[in-house]
């Protein structure tokens, strides 16, 4: 099957956060969903189910667990058992349940900075403390400051590492060596790893996603892996994800945390698209990455040849591109103003991702090529028109 990623689909007026937040003359390249229609088998299954006309309580069938298992096996070679899968209402809630299950108020949760902005909320909102481990930008490439990481992990109150792999916003797809080192440091310091692997399907040529739990048996026993097909198949609005936990004791504790919040009730329009996407839509994931690879090449060339004041941090994964705008020497507020009000392109302003984010912007390139071209032309005029 072939998916047409150039199909024009008007998202305005559909209560769409990405398109309905800003005025009509703004091109939205911010929040992390794509502008692409879902795979045809997903759409067909949803229409068929909707046509049944009754949407009562569903039974928690094993089809959901099977689909998660199936995808991990065929895409990444990770053999998991169905019972390792806990349904969660998306990834961020799964992380919150893990925070509540495995840490206490006042405990430290280590986070590699800059970090996905909701992580800055869920940790303090639950009375835990963020211990930031800043990623270092060296020659246009982010590396892990392992000395600092070890220091943060060895703090007596350090209980959890919230790892984002692939990393949003810096676009790193961490290598086996890096992940092994992280995993072993966490074991040595008795720090549990919660690995957010929501961007695992979108990996660019020359890189490979390694599920954190596949590194070693000891590491598998010390982690919880959170997944969601929402980024890949554009189904974030159905609010359904999963946590995969190989270790039985951890799994039981996580389940209790989910159950205590009565958060185990699935929705028929949540599990159905996940199952269909994971079981039938490999073709779509493959073609999506191919299309994004084209968008990426286009934008890399555009910035390099036409907007020399901005450096693109070349991503290894994700459709979220980290733009180094520090040469413009503008405050966070002025940068946002420049792009939103002058260029009329909405992006995420870097300081919202915490330390290391100031002077950067995050651009979502999961749109039609034509929209990307328009946005880049607007940015070129706005930036190159600065005195
Ligand atoms: C790293 C990361 N984790 C989690 C999420 C949100 O996931 P969910 O909607 O499943 O809570 C996002 C969305 O952008 C993300 O980038």
Give a brief description.
The protein has 387 residues and is an alpha/beta fold. The protein has helices at 17-20, 40-52, 63-76, 91-102, 119-125, 146-153, 176-188, 217-220, 230-233, 248-260, 268-280, 282-306, 332-343, 369-384, and strands spanning 27-28, 85-88, 108-113, 129-134, 136-138, 141-143, 158-164, 192-196, 223-227, 241-244, 311-313, 320-324, 345-346, 348-349, 360-364. The longest helix is centred in the C-terminal third of the chain and has 25 residues, at 282-306.
Keywords:
single chain; 387 residues; alpha/beta; Aspartate Aminotransferase, domain 1; Aspartate Aminotransferase, domain 2; 2 domains; seven-stranded mixed β-sheet; four-stranded antiparallel β-sheet; 14 helices; 41% helix; binds pyridoxal-5'-phosphate
Describe the sheet with the most strands.
Answer: 7 strands, mixed
- Please work out how many helical segments DSSP would assign: 14
Determine the structural class based on helices, strands and strand pairing.
alpha/beta
% residues in beta strands: 15-25%
Q: Could you state the order of secondary-structure elements as H and E?
A: HEHHEHEHEEEHEHEHEHEHHHEEHEEEH
């Amino acid at each position: 099957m072939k998916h047409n990623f150039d199909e024009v689909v008007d998202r305005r007026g559909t209560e769409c956060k990405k398109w309905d937040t800003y005025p009509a003359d703004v091109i939205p390249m911010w929040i992390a969903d794509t502008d692409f229609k879902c795979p045809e088998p997903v759409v067909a299954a949803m229409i068929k189910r909707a046509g049944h006309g009754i949407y009562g309580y569903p039974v928690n069938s094993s089809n959901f667990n099977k689909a998660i298992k199936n995808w991990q096996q065929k895409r990444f070679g990770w053999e998991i058992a169905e019972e390792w899968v806990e349904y969660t209402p998306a990834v961020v809630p799964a992380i919150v349940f893990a925070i509540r299950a495995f840490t206490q108020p006042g405990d430290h949760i280590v986070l590699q900075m800059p970090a996905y902005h909701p992580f800055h909320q869920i940790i303090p909102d639950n009375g835990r403390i963020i211990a930031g481990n800043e990623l270092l930008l060296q020659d246009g490439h982010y590396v892990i400051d392992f000395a600092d990481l070890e220091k943060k992990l060895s703090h007596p109150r350090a209980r959890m590492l919230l790892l984002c792999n692939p990393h949003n916003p810096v676009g790193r797809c961490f290598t086996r060596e890096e992940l092994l080192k992280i995993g072993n440091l966490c074991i040595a310091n008795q720090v549990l790893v919660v690995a957010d692997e929501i961007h695992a399907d979108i990996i660019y040529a020359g890189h490979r996603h390694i599920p954190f739990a596949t590194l070693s048996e000891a590491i598998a026993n010390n982690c919880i892996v959170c997944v969601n097909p929402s980024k890949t198949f554009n189904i974030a609005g159905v609010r359904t994800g999963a946590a995969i936990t190989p270790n039985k004791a951890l799994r039981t504790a996580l389940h209790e945390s989910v159950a205590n919040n009565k958060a185990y009730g699935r929705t028929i329009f949540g599990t159905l698209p996940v199952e269909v996407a994971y079981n039938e839509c490999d073709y779509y994931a493959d073609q999506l990455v191919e299309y994004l690879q084209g968008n990426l090449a286009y934008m890399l060339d555009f910035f390099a040849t036409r907007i020399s004041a901005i450096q693109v941090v070349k991503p290894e994964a994700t459709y979220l591109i980290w733009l180094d705008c520090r040469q413009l020497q503008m405050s966070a507020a002025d940068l946002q103003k420049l792009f939103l009000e002058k260029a009329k392109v909405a992006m995420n302003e870097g300081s919202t991702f915490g330390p290391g984010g100031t002077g950067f912007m995050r651009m979502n390139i999961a749109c039609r090529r034509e929209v990307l071209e328009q946005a880049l032309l607007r940015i070129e005029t706005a930036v190159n028109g600065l005195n």
